[in-house]
Specification:
The chain contains 16 helices and no strands. It starts with 5 loop residues before the first helix and ends in a 16-residue tail after the last helix.
Length: 450
């Protein structure tokens, strides 16, 4: 049984928790630093960050798939397949990331016109500059993402934690240097991301090689597609990747609605997004470790173990969210005051984060942890379709009504998101309860006649 003893799970939880807490803290600190480059810089960066997420989802399908495929291979004792799976994942992600980088650089103007057309010119200029410079980091981020997915699929959560902490320390240090010392503004914010991701990619290559997967650095890559591995990576990675892609399009539309509410609400929305990441840290821990744990159980074909993994992961996510939400709420309210924004934006941001924190404890596990764990079992398509359907039929219309019709601005966008979560949670719970993600039960043995 691979990696499922209590000691290993405790170690995984600790590593992922530290990684996520550090990551969310660094994102918040970065946001505060950018706000001191000017409210226009914060507003432009916060909107364009949604474009970067959209582009990332285009080239990270292989990273989504590789953690599941590697975990299932190891659960079935097919360790020899892992290097070949990794090579195909690197090939797919690097090719797609190069395409996305070029698209962001050469089509950045029309994209910013679409998203920031109603914003002030200073916000537009900051966003466009940030988009084009930041895009240079895509191939390095693709290599980093595939590498840590391979490591997590093998049960190694310590190395991803070390890499993530190191990358974010480099990022935050350079951010402070470029913004406060050299006064580079949004260019400094983008350059710090590029350098940090190059450093992380190099560190990933060294640790993957040290783990014994590849003897030489050139063995990471291949130009010969292997159909069997590509099909597996596509089947496991495409549904969540497509879901994330379409979901991000929805978020971009939502941001366009928030932009229409004015610069105060754009700044408030940037505070909310960073605060939400910190509050939701506990749920991300359970989501991150639940996928490979279910993959190992699926690889063994153990129906009882799969049920136990689902139950324990859900309990873990509710518990972690309750702890992190209660612990983080006072801290986040204080941290929000460090942003250099209008007092009204600060008030809206604090109210929105408080509302999100209480709701996430109840709804986040059903909305996100259940689909993640089911993905580890190979059941991803139905809930991916549900997620996309709810965003376009519930969340976007509700955002328009709450944000513009009722004039609630950024706070209305949070209320619309929670409305989305109620519908999504209902569908996820029903899918889990039906049990189609489980392997067929073994037939009962016929009673002996003797």
């Amino acid at each position: 049984m691979h990696g499922l003893d209590r000691k290993s799970i405790t170690r995984m939880v600790g590593n992922v928790f530290l990684e996520q807490m550090f990551l969310m803290s660094m994102l918040t600190i970065n946001g505060i630093m950018v706000s001191h480059a000017g409210a226009d810089a914060l507003s432009g960066v916060s909107v364009i960050d949604q474009v970067h997420l959209f582009m990332s989802f285009l080239f990270l399908c292989s990273a989504y798939g590789v953690v599941v495929v590697v975990a299932q291979a190891i659960g079935a004792d097919r360790y020899h397949e892992v290097p070949g799976i990794g090579r195909q994942a690197y090939l797919m992600s690097l090719a797609l990331s190069a395409f996305c980088m070029l698209a962001a650089i050469f089509l950045g103007g029309p994209v910013c016109s679409l998203l920031l057309g109603k914003a002030e010119q200073a916000i537009f200029d900051s966003g466009l500059l940030y988009l084009r410079v930041y895009a240079l980091s895509y191939p390095f981020f693709a290599f980093y993402s595939v590498s840590i997915s391979i490591l997590r699929g093998r049960g190694n959560t310590r190395a991803p934690m070390i890499i993530s902490v190191a990358m974010n320390l480099v990022n935050i240090t350079l951010n402070a240097l470029f913004i406060y010392v050299f006064n580079l503004g949004v260019i400094g914010a983008a350059l710090s991301v590029i350098i940090a991701r190059v450093f992380a990619a190099l560190l990933c290559a060294a640790l993957i090689r040290r783990a014994g997967l590849y003897g030489r650095y050139r063995e990471f890559f291949t130009f010969k597609p292997t159909g069997r591995y590509i099909r597996s990576l596509t089947q496991m990675g495409m549904p969540p990747g497509l879901e994330s892609l379409l979901f991000q399009i929805g978020r971009i539309v939502i941001n366009m609605i928030v932009v229409s509410a004015g610069s105060v609400h754009i700044a408030a929305n940037a505070i909310v997004l960073n605060g939400m990441d910190m509050v939701g840290c506990g749920g991300l821990v359970a989501y991150t470790i639940g996928i490979p744990m279910m993959g190992w159980a699926k690889g063994q074909g153990d129906r009882a173990l799969m049920k136990k993994t689902m139950r324990n992961t859900l309990l873990m996510s509710h518990g972690f969210l309750a702890v992190t939400a209660l612990a983080m709420m006072p801290l986040i309210q204080w941290v929000a005051g460090l942003y250099n924004v209008d007092p009204e934006a600060l008030r809206i941001g604090r109210l929105s984060i408080l509302t999100y924190g209480f709701a996430s404890v109840l709804l986040y596990p059903s909305c996100f942890v259940i689909p993640g764990v089911l993905r580890g079992a190979g059941d991803a398509r139905v809930l991916a379709g549900l997620s996309v359907a709810v965003v376009y039929t519930v969340r976007i219309p509700a955002t328009y009504i709450f944000c513009l019709v009722l004039r609630l601005g950024a706070f209305g966008a949070v209320l619309a998101m929670l409305t989305d979560w109620v519908f999504r949670a209902s569908g996820c719970i029903l899918r889990m309860a039906r049990g189609k993600w489980l392997p067929p039960a073994a037939p009962a043995e016929a009673p002996s006649l003797q």
